[in-house]
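> example.struct
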């Protein structure tokens, strides 16, 4: 079995929504890969709609019964669109956990901006995101207590939160009390990049480079020990690489292994 054989849903059932059809058409115009839709129930260990992609296909998993199904569809399609447009990740010697989180989170300010631009009523979506933030914040506050380096992994997320402060202000404020140095560093990065944003590749690259400087400086100035100084150097020397290259290097086997680890049941 390959990921292409995973039971899928018919896109036609969702293309009556004008935002979904626009995002779907934009992605299929940009990509040569197959874009498949699947029920989230196939991967029971994943709680929310998600996106995964490899050399031959882009897979989107959604909860068809959710009241936010159109928002989720456009959100996941936009992850694909940004990748196809050339959005980047940082290639640097960083702990693995930082990598996946980093590239995913860094896309969200632009994804929210474009969800709205596709005509979605975001007032129906934000309460969901507030709950997401609440969960992330609880984890982050716990990490601050047990890990003196926690700020370095929180900074990308905090940085993106500043882009939708109308939803995240209370969370940011709560975090500030627990770890003001990381908060202040993320805020400074935001202040320097907010005029640029992420609307196209060039802005995205410039914002990303500026964020990198603030991120590296935070390690130098606020974290103890030689590990942190090494991290600062690795971030500073890290280069931006297209996410698309990374996805195109992923094989069918790798995706099957990943999905099976998330609970996908393979018959036979
Ligand atoms: Zn996302």
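> example.seq
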């Amino acid at each position: 079995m390959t990921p292409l054989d995973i039971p899928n849903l018919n896109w036609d059932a969702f293309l009556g929504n004008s935002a979904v059809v626009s995002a779907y058409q934009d992605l299929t115009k940009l990509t040569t890969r197959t874009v498949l839709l699947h029920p989230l129930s196939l991967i029971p260990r994943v709680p929310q709609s998600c996106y995964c992609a490899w050399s031959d296909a882009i897979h989107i998993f959604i909860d068809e019964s959710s009241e936010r199904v159109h928002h989720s569809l456009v959100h996941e399609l936009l992850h694909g669109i940004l990748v196809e447009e050339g959005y980047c990740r940082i290639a640097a010697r960083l702990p693995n956990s930082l990598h996946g989180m980093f590239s995913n989170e860094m896309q969200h300010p632009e994804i929210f901006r474009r969800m709205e631009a596709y005509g979605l009523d975001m007032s129906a979506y934000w309460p969901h995101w507030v709950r997401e933030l609440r969960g992330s914040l609880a984890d982050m506050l716990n990490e601050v207590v047990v890990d003196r380096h926690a700020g370095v992994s929180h900074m990308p997320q905090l940085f993106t939160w500043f882009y939708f402060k109308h939803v995240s202000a209370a969370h940011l404020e709560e975090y500030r009390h627990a770890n003001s140095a990381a908060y202040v560093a993320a805020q400074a990065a935001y202040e320097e990049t907010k005029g640029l944003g992420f609307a196209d590749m060039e802005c995205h690259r410039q914002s990303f480079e500026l964020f990198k400087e603030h991120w590296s400086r935070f390690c130098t100035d606020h974290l103890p020990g030689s590990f942190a100084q090494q991290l600062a150097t690795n971030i500073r020397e890290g280069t931006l690489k297209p996410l698309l290259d990374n996805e195109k290097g992923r094989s069918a086997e790798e995706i099957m292994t990943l999905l099976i680890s998330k609970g996908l049941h393979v018959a036979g």
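> remarks
Residues 96-117 form the longest helix (22 residues).
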